[in-house]
Hints:
Strand content of chain B: under 5%
Largest interface: A-B, 54 and 55 residues
Order of helices and strands of chain A: HHHHHHHH
Shape of chain A: globular
Low-confidence stretches of chain B: none
Distance between the termini of chain A: 43 Å
Radius of gyration of chain B: 22 Å
Helix content of chain A: over 70%
Largest sheet of chain A: none
Strand content of chain A: under 5%
Order of helices and strands of chain B: HHEEHHHHHHHHHHHHHHHHHHHHH
Shape of chain B: globular
Distance between the termini of chain B: 48 Å
Low-confidence stretches of chain A: 85-93
Number of strands of chain A: 0
Oligomer: heterodimer
Number of helices of chain B: 23
Mean pLDDT of chain B: 89
Strand order of the largest sheet of chain B: 1-2
Number of strands of chain B: 2
Number of domains of chain A: 1
Amino acid sequence: MSRRLFLIAMLGVLFVVFTLSMIELESLYNNYGMRYFLNEGFDDTGSRNLVTAILLDYRLFDSLFEAGILLIAVSGVIWISKHDVEEKNAQFMLDKYKTPDLFVTFSRLVYPLMLAFGFYVIINGHVSPGGGFQGGAIVATAILILYYIDGNKETNIGLIVTIEKIIYLLIILLASLSFFTRGEFFTNFFVPSANPDLKAIYLVLLNVFIGFKVALGLWTIFTAFLKEGR
Amino acid sequence: MINIPILLIFLPVVTSILVYLFKWKHMNIVVLGSQLILTILAAIYFGHFYGQFEHTHLVLGGWDHRIGISLANDELSMSFIFLSIFTWWMVLAYTFKYGKTDHTFLFFLVFLQGVFLGLLQSNDLFNLFVFLELTTIIVTILIAYKKRGESFRAAIYYILLNTSGVLLFLIGIILIYFTFGTINIVYLHETLTPGDDTMVLRLSYILLMAGISVKSALFPVFTWLPKAHGAAQSAISALLSGLVVKGGIYLFFRMNFLYDNVGIHYGDFFYWVGALTAVVGVMFALSQKDIKQILAFHTVSQIGIIMMGLSSSDANTFYGGVLHTFNHAFFKSLLFLGAGVIIQVYRTKKVTEIRGVMRSMPVVSVFMIIGMLSITGAPFFNGFISKSIIKYGIEDSTIRYWILFAVNIGTATSFIKMSQIFFGPRTVSYPIKNMAQNFALFGFALGCITLGNFYIPFTESFFGIAYDQEFIHVGAFIDYAVTLGLGFMLYHFVISKDYKPIQNIRNFKLSFESANYVFIIYIVVMVTYFIWL
């Protein structure tokens, strides 16, 4: 009990310090970055969605490694879920007989819509909220629904992982293409003065690649978990 | 020429993905080839920019330097880059046979190199965070690689504790971004003035340091390190103890460089944190019987010694601490790899059960003894030099001097204890068939001896500091003999008896919940020290 009270006291101290700092921050707040992105974002990158502008142009280097985190996580999950122990005959929630028919029917209806929505979010990432990472997650969810429709669906993980790795290499290649056209690494391969519609080609391409990579990566992860569950 | 840092980061990353894609049995030759190109590129880069590292500031995408991500190098980061490349060469050599068949392992190992080189060169706070996160995840997988209960537990413990640290690091970055509108380290270093010394800035400093403390295993939050480094494979333990843990140390001085002009006096605080780390690490190491646990706890104690040096405001002592990170990388990797060979042959990790190493594997024993002489600080070996520099730096304060002396005695004791494995009759046969493993041991041993005798050109070219003191004199030998003598007595009369308190220390385990509890106490202490004192 005294341990708890002591903990609460310490968290209280941290809370007070945080609050005092936040009050102080109001007068210190420097919005240089925000103003820069608001004023220059569209002209620099050709993206109306400033998040995409930052993600795919200003800070593309970070995004490459954010995608790398997913890549590593996927390989790690596959490695760890592979085991030689006898598979247990656990009853899994995806058991065909236990999934309600109503749910399966609706899943069949929702599946194409979700897939289309995912692709829409990926392709329009530079105009409206969304982008490769988010759209990829939606596409992956759509694929997950497939497992509800057909519980015995078999997936070749090895193939998906190979494609995922190749797409990652393509993303790196596409990101560094600007070096050969403009002499700068990790930005749009069209010059900054180019027409925004031209620049959008690059953004859409990159979003599509990232979207596929994320979708395949997440697909692999839950397939690995499914195998674990079965 | 200026774009070489990008190649240094992406060459290992792309190579590792190729390894994963083409599971070809000669893939490890390809990896060595890319490693060779990497070495040449780093050498060319260093030769080109030597003496004018202020021109290495590279903004990716050609944006304004306050907006875009930038990479920058200086002598210090270059020295770390060479150290990493060297360590990876040796670890790749050590795992040469293994890498032929296990491509997943090779994939993670080589990917980690690219990420670590990125961590060293990045000049952007958020980019550092991304690299830190990526390092944490890869290291977790490498720790859990054997897929045993022990390694899973260690990996989960590692990732949870480190993630909580890294998240605090992220909050610190957010505070800096809100206050200055940019996260470019060099730019912040130049624009920060003592007038910026506000509570928000101090809070961001504390949060960054909290994350770094977890990453570099400082006193209250070091508990993940022995678990992780004890449970991983020996090659991985060598890499983690020798190098990856130094990522935290490297960030420690990068961040203090950022806050340089604000005038935060961090020296005393981190001296005492370092001293506690060293003392506690040695205490735990003395009680252990598992050969890898002993080495892992000695990593903790040596990091304490490094912090004792780094917390000094005197340049000589500070670079003594930096030099000790290098020396520790050499001898600790050597000891871990040597222990790996021994464990592989004897199939046990117990110090009390391994006997007759000297007779059955003389070559490995010689390398192990070189490592032990280095870590205990024998003259002519590298540990001696950096420990002497730190010792001279803190000599003015009696208590600080005696703490270092006590830590040295403890180190001597536990390696006297470990040296019992050499004696006794030959029990196993070990034909030298794996030359690559011996080559890796040889490389690190050579590094220990070279840095122990020819450290002056090294420190001059990388740190710009020439240590003109003559460290090797009669006093040094007497000092070492006294340390060994006291160490032997301590071992003979106390440690070898295995009294109840020693057993209690050995069986002491800090649960994850308690570790977080301690972590919060640590942050509150930092808040008290840096904001209210």
